[in-house]
Design a protein that fits this description.
- The protein contains four helices and ten strands.
- By secondary structure, the protein is an alpha+beta fold.
- It has one domain.
- 30% of the residues are buried.
Length: 259
């Protein structure tokens, strides 16, 4: 059993079927790391909101905890051609047309008036494809118009980027910061082979930014949640597929633990 991921940055195996648990526990770890930094003038909360996912079947590498998924084995004796059909063929799977997905957001609030100062959003698959993509963009605009800082953490390679393409290099992971009152955003492009950045978390002026060591947060949840027991490093990471060079590097990293 591993206490630490074999990767120096994001572990791509966390993007698979255990992602919903990774998502919720990571939000708690981020709050844990930030709360003592921003005290006593600010308080932190993990506040979930609900999004309707109208295409849960599109997630081939993830299992929502509240999906009723049924698989059938059709390796049964076929009906002879001359016999009348007595029942319909069983479906391969049954997936609900729509489910409710709870997404945790880390909020930093002014302790004096309880106003929202900063929101930290860990993007979910539903945020990165239609119709959730458009819904998320509307939410972002409302936060920005309301004078709230927004830090976006995108640790999923699949789906659309919610940040417009301003010519930054293509990357596996992306982090962006929209500071209140500014019509620009700060972007960090990150590949699987790179260490994760330490991200600034802005507060009210003139207070200095808090610091979020993202790798520390991931290391905390990896150890506490015993994620190595849920990961088979002998297999390829969940989709989308990496380049041949990245796959060779990944195989080298996991060879120690899967050999």
């Amino acid at each position: 059993m591993l206490e630490k991921s074999p990767f120096p940055g994001m572990d791509p195996y966390l993007e698979g079927y255990i992602w919903p648990d990774v998502h919720s526990t990571l939000a708690g770890a981020i709050r844990e790391l930030l709360a003592p930094q921003v005290a006593p003038n600010y308080v932190t909360f993990v506040v979930p909101y609900t999004v309707k996912d109208k295409s849960p079947g599109a997630e081939v590498a993830i299992l929502y905890p509240d999906i009723g998924l049924v698989l059938h084995d059709r390796a049964e004796q076929p009906v002879a051609e001359y016999e009348p059909a007595t029942k319909a063929t069983k479906p391969d799977r049954i997936v609900p047309a729509e489910i409710s997905v709870r997404i945790p957001v880390i909020e930093i609030r002014d302790r004096g008036d309880n106003s929202l100062v900063t929101a930290i959003e860990i993007l979910s698959p539903v945020n990165k494809r239609e119709p959730g993509w458009e819904v998320y963009l509307v939410k972002r605009k409302k936060l920005h118009a309301g004078g709230v800082h927004l830090l976006e953490i995108d640790l999923l390679r699949r789906g659309r980027r919610v940040v417009p393409d301003y010519g930054y290099p293509a990357s596996h992971y992306l982090f962006s910061l929209w500071r209140a009152g500014k019509n620009e955003n700060e972007i960090w492009a990150n590949d699987v082979q790179q260490p994760l950045p330490v991200l600034p978390v802005p507060l009210k002026s003139p207070d200095p930014d808090a610091l979020l060591p993202l790798k520390t947060a991931l290391d905390l949840i990896y150890k506490r949640s015993l994620y190595s027991l849920s990961i088979d490093y002998a297999k390829d990471p969940p989709p989308p597929e990496f380049s041949e060079a990245d796959k060779a590097w990944i195989r080298e990293k996991v060879s120690v633990v899967s050999g």
